[in-house]
Structure formats: structure tokens, C-alpha cells
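Supplementary Methods. Inverse-folding protocol.

Structures were first reduced to a C-alpha cell string of length 232. This string, shown here, constituted the complete conditioning input.
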């Protein structure tokens, strides 16, 4: 398998009140193609910070973070945005759907940024909605959908460009048990069929039960990195 992500001796500091708070400490990590991995830990442990650095939404203070052979810290804002638009899909717990647009238009948005032609866009959008069983909601708006359906639209939006990596930050936090399992089943199916690498930031046991690999983060340090019983 190919190393998609290589992190070596990485630290992240934030200035607070004239001092520096170290959110991540000496992180060393490898993540490979096709993994279904979770960064697990309590609130404030640094999960989202680590996810944001991997996704080039933030940069490390020291050490090395290489994603798809791109050193994150060296990317300009323009190059980081271009890198994300081509290679990374994001799924957030609050869905971040545009309320005035239909399901079709919400899923279409990443493809517009990539300037993909209309005919191909339509084909890709329909395929993405089929992955998450929402073809019948194509003309609906977010206000007409349940929470679980909104999150499935968010998955379709993240997956429509077939990114190599999907970063999911607490994607089941606002969902009940049944919807959580539906969401996770859809992600697992996409992971299996497309070999997309999924990386979760979570403390939800429902998500943890689906993982192939669990990386435990406590007070900014990796304390455990284990393969789960369902590892393939």
C-alpha cells in the first residue's frame, strides 16, 4: 500500500495570552491508501487540529507533514486551496449545506470549483447520490431533509470528485443510532469500492466500532495506535 500521509516529529502551537499552547506534541504517523482510520480522544485532545493540518486548512509549527508528497507547511494559500479541491473531501458534523440550494446544487459545488463541464458534472452528481441512496431527493432543499439525509448529502458532496482522502470531523455527533449506522455503512461501502482513505476525528463509540485502525490522542500526544479486529 502507498503512504498517503507521512508525519514526522510534528508539533502545533497556538499563541494564548502572550504564551504558547502546544496543541500537538511530537506526532509521528503514517496513513496508507484505503485505510478507514480514526483519530480518537476526548474533547480538547487535538483531534480536529490534526485533521485540519492533514487537510491543509492549518499548518504545523514544526516537524514535517507530507500529504500525497506535498509538504503542507510549504504550500501557499492558493496552492493549498488547489490541493484540497483536487484531492480531499471534507465531512463536518454540522453538514455545512447551502440552504437556498437543492441537493443537486449542493453536491455540484466542488465540481464547479474544478470547472468540470455540465454533462460530466450531471453524471458524477447522479452517481454520488446513488452511493448514498438519495437519488429521489435530488431536487429537495436541506430544510426538507432529515438530519441523516443532510449528512448523506454531505458525504455525496465530499465524494463526488472521487478524492483520495476524506476527512470526517465528528460526522455522527448530531445523529441518532440508526442514522449513524446508515452513514457509517455508506462510508464503509465507498471505502471498500473506491479505496478512498477515510480519516475520522471522533470520540463516538459507534464510529470506533467501524474503524480498521484506531489512533488515540490524549493531551496532544499519540498514546496508542492499534489495528482493530475488523482490519482487512
Amino acid at each position: 500500500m502507498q503512504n498517503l500521509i507521512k508525519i514526522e516529529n510534528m508539533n502545533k502551537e497556538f499563541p494564548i495570552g502572550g504564551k504558547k499552547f502546544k496543541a500537538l506534541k511530537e506526532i509521528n504517523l503514517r496513513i496508507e491508501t484505503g485505510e478507514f482510520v480514526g483519530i480518537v480522544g476526548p474533547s480538547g485532545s487535538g483531534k480536529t487540529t490534526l485533521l485540519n493540518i492533514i487537510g491543509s486548512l492549518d499548518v504545523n509549527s514544526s516537524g514535517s507533514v507530507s500529504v500525497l508528497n506535498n509538504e503542507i507547511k510549504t504550500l501557499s494559500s492558493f496552492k493549498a486551496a488547489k490541493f484540497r479541491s483536487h484531492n480531499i473531501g471534507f465531512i463536518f458534523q454540522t453538514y455545512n449545506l447551502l440552504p437556498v440550494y437543492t441537493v443537486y446544487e449542493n453536491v455540484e459545488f466542488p465540481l464547479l470549483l474544478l470547472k468540470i463541464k455540465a454533462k460530466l458534472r450531471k453524471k458524477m452528481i447522479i452517481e454520488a447520490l446513488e452511493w448514498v441512496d438519495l437519488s429521489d431527493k435530488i431536487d429537495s432543499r436541506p430544510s426538507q431533509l432529515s438530519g441523516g439525509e443532510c449528512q448523506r448529502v454531505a458525504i455525496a458532496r465530499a465524494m463526488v470528485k472521487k478524492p483520495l482522502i476524506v476527512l470526517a470531523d465528528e460526522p455522527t455527533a448530531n445523529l441518532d443510532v440508526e442514522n449513524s449506522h446508515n452513514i457509517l455503512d455508506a462510508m464503509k461501502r465507498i471505502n471498500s469500492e473506491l479505496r478512498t482513505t477515510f480519516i475520522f476525528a471522533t470520540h463516538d463509540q459507534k464510529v470506533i466500532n467501524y474503524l480498521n485502525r484506531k489512533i488515540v490522542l490524549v493531551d496532544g500526544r499519540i498514546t496508542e495506535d492499534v489495528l482493530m479486529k475488523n482490519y482487512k
